[in-house]
Amino acid sequence: MIWSYIKERRSWILLFLSLQGLLLFVSYLDNAIPFTSALYIVCLSLLIFFIFIIIRYQRETRFYKSLVEREDSLDLSQLDDPRSPFEQFVTDSLSLQTEHLKKEASEHWTLLEQEKDELLAWIHEVKTPLTTMHLIIERLNNDTMKANLTYEWMRIHLLLDQQLHQKRIPFIKNDLYMEETDVEDVIIQEIKTLQSWCIQKGIGFDMDLKSQKVLTDAKWVGFIIRQLLTNAVKYSRQSDIVIVSYVKDEQTVLEIKDVGLGIDAKDLPRIFEKGFTSTTRHQDHASTGMGLYLTKKVADALHISLDVTSKLGVGTSVRITFPKRNAFVALTRM
C-alpha cells in the first residue's frame, strides 16, 4: 500500500524535490550563497519531509487498512458478488427507477392513443351534421346569406379536415395507396370545395396541365393541393391563380402561382416550420402556422419536393415535383 500512497502523491513529492534541487543549483552558481549552508538546509528539509510522509501515511491509510481487513473476513457468499454494497445499491435503485419510468411512459402513450382515437371519432361524428348543414344551405333562396353561410361552413370543414390529417400523419405509411392519379381531377375537386370563397373574393383559375398522370396517393396529394390552394386564395387579391404542369427531367412538375401578398425573403427558409407565422403579418390571429408544416410532412412521406419562390407584395409560386416512376419501389418499401 505504501507504493500506492507514494504513486498517488508523486506530483507534489516531485515538486518538493525539484525545489530542493533548485536551491542547491542556485547556491552552486551564486557565490553569495554558501553551498554548505544550502546543503545543510536541504538535508534538514528532506529529513522533516520524510518524517511528515511517514506520519501522514499512517493516518491516511488507517481507515483503508480496516476496509481491507473487513474484506478479508467476508464469507464465500459475499465474495461471489464482485460489486461493493454501494455499487449494488446504486444498480438496484437505477433498475427500479428505469422500470418505473418505462411504466409511466407506457401509461402516457396509452392515454395519448386514447385521446387521439377519441378526437378522430369526434371529428367523424361532426362531419355528419356538417354535411346536413351544407344541404340546408344549398336550399336557401337568399343568395347573400347562402354565400356567407357557405363560406363559414367551408372554414369549419377545412379546419376539421386539417385536424383529421394532422392526427393521421404519424401513421401515414400505413395509409398510403400508390396508384395512377389524374392530377386534374384532384385539382378540380379541391377548387369545387373552395368555389364559394373564390367567388366571394373574385378569384378565378387559369389551368394549363400538359402532364396529368402521376403515380402517387390521390388522397394525400389532394391534401397537399388543398393546403396550397387555400393559402393562395387566402392571401390573393382579385385575380387568377395560375396552375400549370409539365415534365422536367422525367418528373412531373405542378406549379401553383398567385398574385397576392407574397412572402418576405427572410421568412422563406422558415415557412415549413411548425407554428411559424409570417413576421410581416404577425398580428394575423387566424394564422396557425400548421398548414405548410403538415403539407411538408405529407410531401416528404410521398417523396414529393416542394419549392417556394415569392416576392413581397407581388405573389407566390409553389412547385410540386413528383418522384420518378422508379421511385415507386422506394415508396412501397416504406
TrEMBL record:
Keywords from the UniProt entry: ATP-binding, Cell membrane, Kinase, Membrane, Nucleotide-binding, Transferase, Transmembrane, Transmembrane helix, Two-component regulatory system
GO BP: cellular response to phosphate starvation
Top EC class, one word: transferase
Catalytic activity field: ATP + protein L-histidine = ADP + protein N-phospho-L-histidine
Topology within the bilayer: Multi-pass membrane protein
InterPro entries: BphY/WalK/GraS-like, HATPase_C_sf, HATPase_dom, His_kinase_dom, Sig_transdc_His_kin-like_C
Superkingdom classification of source: Bacteria
Domain Histidine kinase positions: 121-326
UniProt cross-references to PROSITE patterns, sorted A to Z: HIS_KIN (PS50109)
EC number in record: 2.7.13.3
GO MF term list: ATP binding; phosphoprotein phosphatase activity; phosphorelay sensor kinase activity
GO CC annotations, alphabetized: plasma membrane
Residue ranges of the TM segments: 12-29, 35-55
Subcellular location field: Cell membrane
Protein name in UniProt: histidine kinase
Species for this entry: Aquibacillus koreensis
